Amino acid sequence: AKSEGRSTYRFFEPQMDQRLQARRALELDLRGALEHGEFELHFQPLVNLTSRKIICFEALVRWAHPERGLVPPSEFIPVAEEIGLIVPIGEWILRQACSEAMHWPEDISVAVNLSSIQFQRSNVVRTVSQTLLETGLPANRLELEITETVLLQESDETLTSLHALRALGVRLSMDDFGTGYSSLNYIRRFPFDKIKIDQCFVQDVATNKDSLTIVHTIVALGRSLEMTTTAEGVETQEQLTMLRAAGCAEAQGSLFGMPTPASGVAALLQKPNPV
Ligand code: C2E
Ligand code: CA
Ligand code: CA
Ligand code: CA
């Protein structure tokens, strides 16, 4: 009778309220997910195009929802950001990624994505330095990936935090480069070590002259600003050939391996060079 009452209730609810309810249900589940241990990190290799070796793994969070199955980050990260939950979740991700990297060879780094909310609503510098101390990971094995949204405020505080992070010895990567509207301004103002060329430029680099020109320009820009360039979302040998010719230093994508659970990292490191 109870379930009947509920479905009748739903039937008469306007659509807007239904969406709101679904959203509230997701929020509620998200609030419990951390303590229920439902998050998991997957790791995707980054390959140096000169040595052809894996040099880093990017940590990408997954949510194993008990009923919905794997929920992609694109669905729950924005919600977690909106309700501030990204701060404790982000702290868990960082600690988990650094602890995991302690099991890897010493010349392999780990890259962790930071959300803009972690800059705005928490002391991200203290979190990073404490996590390095607690896990024992040397700072030079940690890369922090930051998108333009972090920099949108362009506040002095953001700049101070970025300099403080760098002073700890971690590296900073500008993620999704070229997709925002003021990438060039940011790359000039903020202390990045690496530019990650967004996959939208990489996707048709072998078939579209304009994309190829953009990639060449970004690599040249990186070189003159003394930043490394990584190509994201490399899927084919043709793309790789073009990226190599453009002078791109590193690459990541399905051609080298999609994100895998931590248990798959050792196997990837033992495989002969993927390219
Ligand atoms: P991102 O940081 O740009 O991550 C790259 C995304 O591209 C990942 O999607 C990855 O699985 C996907 N990818 C990698 N290689 C290929 C390829 O060859 N082809 C294609 N089509 N896709 C490829 P994912 O894991 O679904 O993550 C999506 C976004 O969610 C990330 O974009 C990042 O912005 C965010 N995200 C993921 N994990 C975290 C996290 O731990 N913290 C935060 N704050 N954000 C995260
Ligand atoms: Ca990233
Ligand atoms: Ca990216
Ligand atoms: Ca992206």
Automatic annotation (TrEMBL):
Residues 23-273 form the EAL domain. This is EAL domain-containing protein. It comes from Chelatococcus albus. The lineage of its organism: Bacteria, Pseudomonadati, Pseudomonadota, Alphaproteobacteria, Hyphomicrobiales. The chain holds residues 493 to 767 of 774 of the full protein.
